[in-house]
Write a structure and sequence with these properties.
Elements lengths: L3 H14 L12 E3 L9 E6 L11 H24 L8 E6 L12 E6 L10 E4 L13 E6 L11 H16 L37 H10 L18 E3 L12 H52 L9 H9 L1
Parallel strand pairs: 2-3, 2-4, 4-6
Antiparallel strand pairs: 1-7, 5-6
């Protein structure tokens, strides 16, 4: 029993350090579209920073640009796995107001910032799209407004928060509405879900990426890109999409982030294995020490019993003889 007890502890520690994956099954996930499309595969975006405001961080401009670039990288990951290579013809040109905005001319999308949407709202971002009547075509410019603080105006968004919110809003600007589930089939956050699934201001928040569901809907919105002659006719009306068989529901992280995530997982696994090995060694040492102590205790008891001297009584004949002498 003394040996089984530490082994039981070791088993519990092994389970604790290697928990089963808590993947969430995302059944019947759907995403509707906004009912519009851009008619030029080159989509231009102008970001307008408000550097003179104390609630604005200069890094937010970079965050928005980074969020847009991640969409292009996720498109590459998706098309490598599932085709629809024409999506790679979509390109995003980002300019900064007051710096190089003349390169974008009249932009398709304008991105601006406010301090907060206020306690009357739960919002962190808002994208207002305009669709030409009965055409299914976006009218420029679409306006995206990003808050730098939560609705209570007490917690400022981290750079990770801003990248996530900007990525979500850019999905709207491309023509996606809100997905019906908050978590994908591989247990990651669904970028296009209605609400932000992480606590604002937490430095440990993770980056979110478009899902295969988002990409599948995007491929349908921009299926006209596959036409050599470009856009013609009208765009698709608002449509609800769900993934067909053969496409797993997962987040499409850019390759560089996948490599970094894999490296982090390997490092974490190595650390856990090292901790388990150290704990196992300690438990084994304790078990051996207990075994040695028990063996010594039994040996001492055996020696004590063998050292007891028993003096037998003298035979009656010898006693009588001694009396006669």
């Amino acid at each position: 029993m003394r040996v089984l007890f530490p082994l039981g502890i070791l088993l519990l520690l092994t389970i604790w350090f290697n928990p089963a994956s808590n993947a969430h099954a995302a059944t019947s996930a759907e995403i509707p579209t906004e009912g519009g499309t851009w008619t030029n595969p080159t989509i231009t975006i102008v970001i307008t920073p408000v550097s003179n405001m104390p609630w604005f961080k200069a890094s937010y401009t970079y965050d928005v640009n980074y969020a847009i670039a991640r969409w292009a990288k996720s498109i590459i990951v998706y098309t490598d796995a599932y085709g629809s290579y024409y999506l790679r013809k979509l390109s995003f040109v980002t300019c900064v107001s007051g710096v190089n905005d003349t390169l974008c001319g009249t932009p398709d999308i304008r991105v601006q910032f406010i301090q907060s949407f206020g306690s009357e709202s739960a919002g962190l971002g808002l994208t207002s799209v305009r669709i030409q009547q009965n055409s299914g075509i976006f009218a420029a410019p679409t306006t995206t407004t990003l808050a730098t603080y939560d609705p209570t105006n007490t917690t400022q968004l981290t750079d990770t928060d801003m990248i996530n919110i900007a990525s979500h809003e850019f999905g709207h600007a491309l023509g996606l509405n809100h997905a019906t589930v908050s978590v994908t089939g591989d247990g990651t956050f669904e970028l296009m879900f209605l609400s932000y699934g992480q606590a604002v201001g937490n430095p440990r928040n993770s980056l979110e990426s478009p899902s295969t569901l988002d990409m599948y809907a995007l491929a349908n919105i921009y299926d006209w890109v596959s036409n050599p002659s470009g856009f013609s006719g009208t765009g698709h009306s608002a449509t609800i999409y769900s993934l067909p068989p053969g496409i797993a529901y997962a987040s499409e992280y850019p390759y560089a982030e996948q490599i970094q995530s894999l490296q982090n997982s390997i490092n974490q696994m190595r650390l856990e294995i090292l901790i388990v090995a150290v704990v196992a060694g300690l438990l084994l040492a304790v078990a051996l020490a207990l075994g040695i102590l028990m063996a010594r205790k039994k040996h001492v008891q055996a020696q004590t019993e063998s050292w007891q001297i028993v003096v037998p009584p003298a035979p009656a004949e010898v006693f009588s003889f001694l009396l006669l002498r």
